[in-house]
Amino acid sequence: MATDLEIARAATLQPIAEIAARAGIPETALIPHGRTKAKIDFDFIAAQAARPRGKLVLVTGISPTAAGEGKTTTTIGLGDALNALGTRTMICLREPSLGPCFGVKGGATGGGRAQVAPMEEINLHFTGDFHAITSANNLLSAMVDNHLYWGNGLGLDPRRVTWRRAMDMNDRNLRNLVLGLGGAAQGVPREDGFDITVASEVMAIFCLARDLADLQARLGRIIIGQTRDGRSITAHDVKADGAMAALLRDALQPNLVQTLEGSPALVHGGPFANIAHGCNSVMATTLGLGLADVVVTEAGFGADLGAEKFLDIKCPSAGLAPDLAVVVATVRALKMHGGVAKSALGAEDVAAVERGVVNLERHVENMRKFGLPVLVALNHFTSDTEAEIEAVRHAMARIGAEAVLCTHWGDGAAGAAELARRARQLLEEGHAKYRPLYAPELPLAEKLRTIAREIYHAAEVQIPPAIATRLARFEEMGFGHVPVCVAKTQYSFSADAGRMGAPSGHVLPVREVRLSAGAGFVVAVCGDIMTMPGLPRHPAAEGIGLDSAGRIEGLF
User: Less Cβ around it within 10 Å: N or C end of the chain?
Assistant: First the structure.
C-alpha cells in the first residue's frame, strides 16, 4: 500500500493561480511562494469583509488514541465531497508543527486521497509563519532581558518575569533553565524556560487577530511580568510590540494551497488544542466564509479540547456562529476505548466497540450543549467488520444521531459523498442555535468548573489556595470576563491519560494558571500536561531523511 507521502508525490498539482480563481481570488491578490502555494494580500481580504458569510462546519473527534481517528483527513474529504456535489466550499486548517512531525504524531496534512499539498513543504517550513511567530516571541524575551540589563527603569522584578521563550520543537531539557550566568556582562541571572511555539501566546494572538491593527494591539497587551509591588509590565511598556508586529506582518496573510482533488484550502496558524486553543486563524476562517458557501474547518484533538475552545474562545472572539459539528471516530479507536490493545485491533470485537462507544456518545452529547446539530463520520478501516460498524450505528441511533461510513482515505471525495449529502441537508434545514457554554460575566473559577462539570463530567475541580488567589487577582486586573483555556491531556476526559472511555466523577487538578492578556484568555494547566513536550523513545525523526535524488523520505 502506498504511503501518504507517495500518494501526495504522485499527484499532479495545479498552478496556485488556478486554485485561487476557483475560490474567487484574482491573481493580483496572490503573493506566490512557488508554483503551488501563495499568501493572500491584506487589501483583498479587507474587501471581502462586507460580503455575506457562508455556512460554517466544525470537524472534531473523539478522544484520540494510538489507533488514529483521521480528523484532518475527514475535514479534507468532506470539503472535497461538498465541492464535488457543486457546493462552493473552502477548507480551513491549521499549519503543522515541527514538534509532532519529528516526534510521534507525524504531520497534519491529512492522508491517502484526502490530503492538502504540497505535503512535504506544508509539514516542514511551509511559508515561514512559525519561524516568524517564534522570532517575535523570542524578540520579546530578548528585549525583556535587555531592559533588565540596562538599568531596569520600569522596576521589573526578575523573579516575577512570566514571559517564556519558544521553539517549535519537542525538547524537554528546555522546560526550565537559568540564564544570565557568567558575570555582570552576561545579563541578569534569572529562571526562564521554553514552551513549544504552538503553545505560545504569540501563536494565540496570531490566530485570534482580526487584522494588523488588532495584532499589534494584542501584542502590546502581553503581560511579561510584575514589579515588586505587583504592577504588571507589558510588551508595550518595553517597546517591543511594534517590532513584533513587523516580524509577523507578512505571516499574518493567510496561506492558500490545494487538496489532491483541487479544492482550495487555507492553511494558517497552528496552536495545539491540549495546551492552547487549537484552532486555525480567524483571518483565514472569515476570509473563507466570505468566499465560499460552506467552510469546513477543524479543531485539534477531541471535542472536549479543540471543539470546546473553538466554541467558547474563537467563535465569541471573532463573532462566528457555526452551523454543524461533525464528530470523527473509527471502529479501531472505539475498541481501544473499550480496553483492546493496539496489537489486537485486527480481530473482530463487537463487545469492545460497545464498551468504547461511550466516548463517542459523550462527545456527541457535549456538542449538542452548544446548540449544534451533530453528524458522526465513521472513518473506515479495512479491518472493520459489518457487525462492529452496526454496533456504532445502533449506539448513535439510541441518542438520536447518525453515523455515516466514510472511505475518503482510499476513495477521495467519492468516499465522503454520503457524509457531504447529509451535511448539506442539515445545513439547509438550519437547526443550529449556537451558544457558548458559559456567560462572560461568570467568575473565572466558575467558568473552569462549568467546563469540568459539563464537558469532562468531573465531580470536582481542585484549585489550590494560591491559584484561587491568582484567579482573583486576574479578575481585579479587569480580566474576569475572558474565557478559560484548559491545558490537559488529550487522551482522556479526565486529567489522567490512562482513563479512557467516558470516566465520570473524577477530580480535575489545576496545577497553574496563566493570564494571556493579549490573546484574551486565562490558561488553566491541569494534571501533568507540559507546555513543552518531549520526544518519544523512538521519534519519527529517526526515520526521516533524503534519498539518493535528494527527495524527502519518511514523513507521514
Answer: N
Instruction: Extract the C-alpha cell encoding 214.
Output: 488588532
CA 538 to chain centre: 25
What does DSSP say about strands 460-462 and 507-516: parallel, antiparallel, or unpaired? Answer: parallel
Backbone angles phi, psi at 50, to 5 degrees: -85, -5
State how far Cα 267 lies from the chain centre.
12
Cα 62 to Cα 104: distance, rounded to the nearest angstrom: 19
Identify whether the C-beta of residue 372 lies closer than 8 Å to the C-beta of residue 342: no
Mean pLDDT of 53-59: 98
- Predicted confidence at residue 77, as pLDDT, reads 98
Query: What cell does 397 get?
Result: 441511533
Strand pairing report for 114-117 and 255-259: antiparallel
Three-state SS string across 110-156, please?
A: EECCEEEECHHHHHCCCCCHHHHHHHHHHHHHHHHHHHHHCCCCCCE
Predicted TM-score of the model (pTM): 0.96
- Residue-wise burial string across 108-128, b where 16 or more C-beta atoms lie within 10 A, e elsewhere: bbbbbbbbbbbbbbbbbebbe
Smallest CA-to-CA distance from 307 within 329, 284, 325 is with 325
Instruction: Just list the catalytic residues.
Output: 71, 73, 94, 105, 273, 301, 381, 409
Query: Residue 113 corresponds to which cell in the numbers above?
Result: 486521497
Degrees to nearest 5, angle at CA 309 with 304 and 311? 100
CA 65, CA 490: separation in Å to the nearest integer? 9
Q: pLDDT (tens digit, 9 = 90+) per residue, 280-334?
A: 999 999 999 999 999 999 999 999 999 999 999 999 999 999 999 999 999 999 9
Identify the pLDDT of residue 1. 78
Whether 5 and 119 have beta carbons less than 8 Å apart is answered as yes
CA-CA distances (angstroms) from residue 123 to 13, 130, 248, 552? 17, 11, 20, 11
The answer to whether the CB of 299 falls within 8 A of the CB of 307 is yes
Q: Are 72 and 109 in contact (CB under 8 A)?
A: yes
Q: Is a pLDDT exceeding 90 seen at residue 68?
A: no
pLDDT score for 2: 87
Q: CA of 438: how far to CAs of 256, 441, 453, 514, in Å?
A: 34, 9, 12, 20
Which pLDDT belongs to residue 346? 93
* Helical segments of 150-298, H only: 201-208, 212-220, 241-248, 282-291
What pLDDT digit, counting tens, does each position of 109-143 carry? 999 999 999 999 999 999 999 999 999 999 999 99
Supply the DSSP symbol for 552: E
CA separation, residue 307 to residues 27, 99, 168, 266, 514 (Å): 34, 22, 23, 19, 21
- Give the residue among 88, 87, 25, 79 at the shortest CA–CA distance from 57: 79
**Length of the chain counted residue by residue:** 556
CA distance 399 to 364: 9
By the 8 A CB rule, do 261 and 113 touch?
yes
Residues 6+ apart with CB under 8 A from 453: none
Strand partners, 486: 524
**Grid cell at residue 291:** 468566499
Mean pLDDT for the chain overall: 96
DSSP symbol at 233: E
With a CB cutoff of 8 Å and minimum separation 6, the contacts of 528 are 489, 495, 511
